[in-house]
Design goal:
277 residues; seven-stranded antiparallel β-sheet; PH-domain like; 5 helices; alpha+beta; 3 domains
Length: 277
């Protein structure tokens, strides 16, 4: 297996523009056409765009100049939205986007609204609902795997895990080939030696082949840990802030206890001295 990685492999975090990527099933309401695309949010702020990734690795930008609505549909996994797609055609296009699960739908909807307001990434993180998952971009594991494709052939991919999410990249660049939310995912040993099958809700299974049983165990534990992390709704900065606040509170409590003990000891010493006098 080729030992090559994307540029993210040497980093501790992936960019938010990568984290905010979604595997979608896009339905053009006017043309009654469907296609599957990875869509990602870019250029946060007044010039925010929603990019749809094409098979030639290029992105087409969908501008928010005429954003009208982003309504979550009844089934909890679809969003109906209408906005100007100026770089594709010169008139408004209405789409129904089906996402993997309700978690992905909620964060996608929140990002649509945030881009419509022109929020920066800092404002998006600051104003998000505290029960909304999917904002931790810390890389928990990164490495090369062989992914089994539709034909049964194994192809080298760089797999990156962050809390609650999995990404697959081409080894030679940062082109994201696949992204999935790990909510309710199940990971089991595959049929082939040193392989794993990742069973995803709302997605097809992902089958990967590792070099040996030791690596298979490492990835099995890492995927399960990423799926189960309670911190996937927090940012790394918030986790650090929470840790520092906890350490400070413990230090303050210890200092107060020590001061109280010293005061008590001094009071007892003073009382004893008074009795002796």
């Amino acid at each position: 297996m080729v030992k090559a990685f994307t540029t993210f492999s040497s980093q501790s975090e992936i960019p938010y523009e990568v984290l905010f990527s979604f595997q979608t099933e896009k339905h053009n309401i006017a043309k009654n056409q469907d296609n599957k695309r990875i869509m990602s949010f870019r250029n946060f702020g007044k010039k925010a765009t929603l990019n749809t990734q094409l098979k030639d690795k290029k992105n087409k930008q969908l501008k928010f100049e005429a954003f009208e609505k982003g309504v979550i549909l009844d089934d909890g996994t679809s969003i109906e939205c209408s906005f100007m797609a100026a770089s594709i055609i010169d008139k408004g296009v209405e789409w129904e986007l089906k996402l993997q699960n309700s978690q992905e739908t909620q964060i996608f909807h929140y990002l649509l609204e945030s881009c419509d307001k022109g929020w920066t990434i800092d404002e998006i993180l600051k104003n998000r609902p505290r029960n909304l998952h999917g904002f931790n971009n810390s890389i928990t594991k990164c490495g090369m795997v062989a992914r089994v494709g539709k034909t049964g052939m194994a192809e080298d991919r760089c797999m990156i895990l962050v809390p609650g999410k999995l990404f697959l990249f081409f080894k030679e660049d940062n082109y994201c080939r696949f992204v999935a939310n790990l909510h309710d995912a199940e990971v089991v040993a595959g049929d082939k030696a040193s392989s794993l099958t990742i069973k995803l809700i709302g997605h097809k299974d992902v089958v990967i082949i590792l070099q040996d049983e030791a690596e298979q165990t490492e990835w099995l534990e890492a995927i399960n840990a990423s799926r189960d992390l309670e911190s996937d709704f927090q940012t790394p900065a918030e986790i650090q802030e929470e840790k520092e606040a906890k350490e400070q509170a413990e230090a303050d409590a210890a200092a107060k206890k020590k001061a109280d003990e010293e005061a008590q000891a001094q009071a007892e010493a003073d009382a004893k001295t008074k009795e002796e006098n």
